Description:
single chain; alpha+beta; 434 Repressor (Amino-terminal Domain); elongated
Amino acid sequence: MRLEGRLWKSGEHWLIEVPALAAMTQGKTKAEAYEMIGDLIATMANNPELEVTVEPAGSEAFTISANRTGILVALLLRRQRERQGITLAEAAARLNQTSRNAYARYEQGQSVPTLEKLEELLQAVAPDQQLVLRLAA
């Protein structure tokens, strides 16, 4: 799984963001910005097993991937839920589950959802967002 990001020059710095994770940072050079976004995502995931790879994909685009897809998916779910300002219990209720653990196991990386389940989970925590898939060249 890869998440897309964008990079642009603003004054003396390069700003870099991954919108799906609501993650943004900067660097003095493009290389430093790429390094900073990888470090930021690894820090946000708070899991020492996660290794983030940042790959340029054009002058203003890049993708990120990770050695542990489940951890990246868990981070995506948590960040989207937090962006919406809902609790674990509210997320579970939106999935018609009585226990917040039904949702939390995905957000904690204990379970890796299928594509269909990921879409359902994202719809529950971020109904205004759309999951867009595309084949990478």
